Amino acid sequence: MTDSADNAIGNTFAKLSYLVVDDFENFRLSMRQMLRSCGADKIELVPNASAAIQYCSYNHVDVVLCDYNLGEGKNGQHILEELRHKKLLKRASLFLMVTAETSKEMVMGAREYQPDAYLTKPINRAMLEKRLSALITQRSALLPINREIDRENYPEAISLCLQALPSKPRYKTWLMKTLADLYQQVGDFSHALKIYDDVLAQRDLSWARVGRGKILVANQAYDEAVTTLRDLIAKHPDYMEAYDLLAEALEKQGRPTQAQQVLEKAAEHSPNALMRHKHLATLAASNQDMSTASQAWRQTVTLGTHSIHDSSEHYLALGQSLSDLSEGDTTEEGSAAADEALTILRRMEKRFADQENIKLRSRIVQSRVHAGQGKMNEAQKALESIADELGDAGLMDPEAGLDYAKTLFRLGRENEAKALLTELASRCQDDPALLQKIENLLDEPVGFRQKLRARSLNRDGIKAFESGELDEAVMTFSRALEIVPSHAALNLNLVQVLMKKYQETPGDRDLLNRCQKHLAQLSGLPQQHRQYRRLVSLRKKLEGMMS
In degrees to the nearest 10, what's the CA dihedral of 329, 333, 338, 341? Predict the structure, then answer.
C-alpha cells in the first residue's frame, strides 16, 4: 500500500468516533491501541450494556465494536436491539459484533437486528483495518443517501439512489435494495416490484424474493406470496424474515393453523427472537392451542429479561394461558401449571411494581387460577386483596374488565359478569376488537377445553342440518348448549332446526315452545352483538308461526 493510500485511510479513520464495548479491560485497551494505530483518535471504552446505551444516548457514534458476551445482564444482541429500537444509531453508523462464540443460535439471534459485520476473536490489527476500511469506504460513499433516510426525506433519498446507480456500480446491490425499500416506504409498489423483478431476472437473491413477497402481501395477492415465500424458505431455510412474512400471508388467507406451524419452525431455527415468540404465542392462543401458547409466552418472558421489549403484558399473558391450561385439571400436570401461573404473576407484581393496576390484573388472574383448581377460599381471598381497586368495576380498564368478568364466571357470579360485560359493550361501542372479545366471553364463559368441545359439536350440528338429518342436528346442538347455555349462535342454530322440523310436522306445538325457551335464553343479548339481528328476525318468524 502506498504512503498516500495509508494517509488517506488514516485520515478517514481519524474523522470518525468509536465506541468499544467489552467486559474485559485488557481487550478494551488492546482494541483502542489497534484503532489508534489505524489513525483513529476519538475512542470511548465501556465495560457493559448500560454504559454503552447511556453513552449513545448523549453522543453521536460512527462505529460501535461490541462484544457479544458481556457477562451478567444484557449481551451484544440486546445492545444492538435497544440502539435500533430507540434510534440511537444513525443509518450511517456501523455496528460490528465482536465474538469468540460462533454458535448458530447466537449468530441467528444477532443477525435478526442486522449488524454490519462480525469480527471473530482473536483480532489483530491487519484484520481490523481491512474490515473497517471496507465498511468505512462504503459508509462514506453512501453517506448522503443515509442522511436523507435518517431525516425521513424519502423522495430526496430516492433521487440520490437513482443518481448513484450509474456512477457507483460497486454498490449497485445496496442501492437497488435501498431504492426498493424506499419505494415501498412511499407506497410506490409498482416501482419497487419492478426492481425486485429486474434483480431476480439476473440473480436469485433472497432479499429480492422477500421484497417481492412484501409487495404481493401488500397487494393482497396472498396465493402468489405464499408460493414465493415457501419456495424461498425451501432454498434458504435460515432467511428468517421470510417465515414472518409467510405467516402474515397465511393469516390473511384465513389459515391461522398453518401460520402457527410456520412460526413454530422459525422459532426452532432462531430461538432468541422475542417478537417472533410473542407473535407465535398470540396466534396459538387464538387457535386455542394453549400448550403451544404457554410455551411461546414462557420463551417471550425469558428472552425479555434483558430486552428493551420486556413487558408486564407478557407475564400476564403467560399467567392467563397457564390458568386456561390448568382449569379443571387437578392432575399433577394441571397443578404444576397452576403453580407456575401463580409464581409468574407474583414475579410480575415485583418486577413491574411501579406500573398502574399491576396488582389488580395479577390478583384477578390468580383468583381464576385458584378457582380452576377448586380452591374457592383462596380465589375469594385474592379478590379481597384488591377490594378497593374493584370498587367501581364499570370504570375499569376494558382489558382488565374482560379479565375480571372471566374470573366472575369461574366463581359462579354469572349475573355480575354479564352486567359488567354489558356495561363494557355500551362504553366501548367504537372498538370492534373489544366488542368481539365481549361477545366471545358472553357466548362461551367456560374453560378452553369446554370451548373446543362445544365448537366441535356446533360444527357437527351444522353438518347434520345441511344433510337434512334434523333429529341428529337437534341432539348435537342440545349437547353443545349443555356446555355453553348462553351461546347466542348455538341457541339460534337450534331454533332454526326446530322451526324446520315444525314446518315438516306442523301440529307439534312442543317444537315452537322449545323455540320460545331458547329465544328467551337470549333476552339480555346486547344490541351490539353480531347475532342480535338474527335473534330479532327469528323472534318475528316464531310469532308468525305461533299465531
Answer: -140
**In this structure, is residue 192 part of a structural domain?**
no
Q: Is the pLDDT of residue 378 over 60?
A: yes
Q: Which of 77, 111, 80 is nearest to 95 (CA)?
A: 80
Of 141, 168, 202, the residue at which a domain comes to its end is: 141
Please tell me whether residue 318 adopts helix, strand or coil conformation. helix
64 sits in which H/E element: strand 63-67
For residue 382, name the pLDDT band (cuts at 50, 70, 90). Answer: very high
SS (H, E, C) 225-252: HHHHHHHHHHHCCCCHHHHHHHHHHHHH
CATH number at residue 474: 1.25.40.10
CA distance 238 to 108: 8
What are phi and psi for residue 67, nearest 5 degrees?
-70, 145
User: Taking a C-beta distance cutoff of 8 angstroms, is the pair 28, 47 a contact?
Assistant: yes
Burial of 442 (0-12, 13-18, 19+ CB in 10 A): buried
pLDDT over 90 at 221, yes or no: yes
Question: What CATH number has the domain bearing residue 90?
Answer: 3.40.50.2300
pLDDT, position 547: 76
Contacts of 403 (CB under 8 A, 6+ apart): 320, 361, 364, 365
Whether residue 436 has pLDDT greater than 60: yes
In a domain, 130, yes or no: yes
Sign of CA dihedral 409, 412, 414, 415: negative
Predicted confidence at residue 527, as pLDDT, reads 80
Q: Round to whole Å and give the CA distance between 434 and 425.
A: 8
Contact indicator for 410, 368 with CB cutoff of 8 Å: yes
Is residue 114 in a domain?
Answer: yes
| Predicted TM-score (pTM) of this structure | 0.85
CB atoms < 10 A from the CB of 460, how many? Answer: 17
Let me know if residue 266 belongs to a domain.
no
Largest CA distance in the chain: 108
Number of H helices, E strands in the chain: 27, 5
CB distance 95 to 115 below 8 Å: yes
Strands 94-99 vs 117-120: parallel, antiparallel or unpaired? parallel
State the total domains in the chain: 2
Each residue's pLDDT tens digit, 13-58: 899 999 999 999 999 999 999 999 999 999 999 999 999 999 999 9
The pLDDT of residue 9 is above 60 = no
Radius of gyration of the CA atoms of the chain, in A: 30
Residue at which a domain ends, from 109, 125, 141 = 141
What pLDDT is attached to residue 4? 47
- What is the overall mean pLDDT for the chain? 91
Tens-place pLDDT, residues 492-515? 999 999 999 998 888 888 999 999
- DSSP-derived secondary structure for 494-532: HHHHHHHHHHHSTT-HHHHHHHHHHHHTTTT--TTSTTH
Structural domain including 478 reads 450-546
Helix (H, G, I), strand (E, B) or coil at 324: helix
